[in-house]
Specification:
It contains 4 helices and no strands. The protein is mainly alpha-helical.
């Protein structure tokens, strides 16, 4: 049974959290130059051994992170408090694996020199 306010909770989470992450993922998939991680940072093509593969992994990273928010919205359809707790965990502790994954991608594709 759908919880009271569950539909609104799910829509807000999907539109304000998941969708922007998915847009970043699509942006990463389509970029011809290396995707950056931090706002205002840049990654030069000369620093990356395989730009296409690097961007592809970046895209999957953001797709996964956004999907976690979408799952939280789905959980919130049935239990808004559980969805809220899941969202809190994703948006705080979820940043740690996001950063670790980015560092793994960076180390995998950086040009040694």
């Amino acid at each position: 049974m759908i919880a009271e306010g569950g539909i609104i909770f799910a829509l807000i989470l999907i539109l304000s959290c998941a969708a922007p992450m998915w847009i970043v993922a699509v942006w990463a998939f389509r970029r011809k130059t290396p995707m950056h991680f931090w706002a205002g940072s840049t990654v030069k093509a000369e620093e990356i051994s395989d730009v296409h593969a690097y961007n592809r992994e970046h895209g999957f990273m953001w797709l996964s992170y956004g999907s976690a928010f979408a799952i939280s919205g789905i959980v919130g359809l049935f239990d808004v408090m559980a969805g809220s707790a899941f969202t809190l965990i994703i948006s705080t502790f979820g940043l740690i694996p996001l950063f670790i994954n980015y560092r793994r991608i960076w180390n995998k594709y950086k040009v040694e020199g």
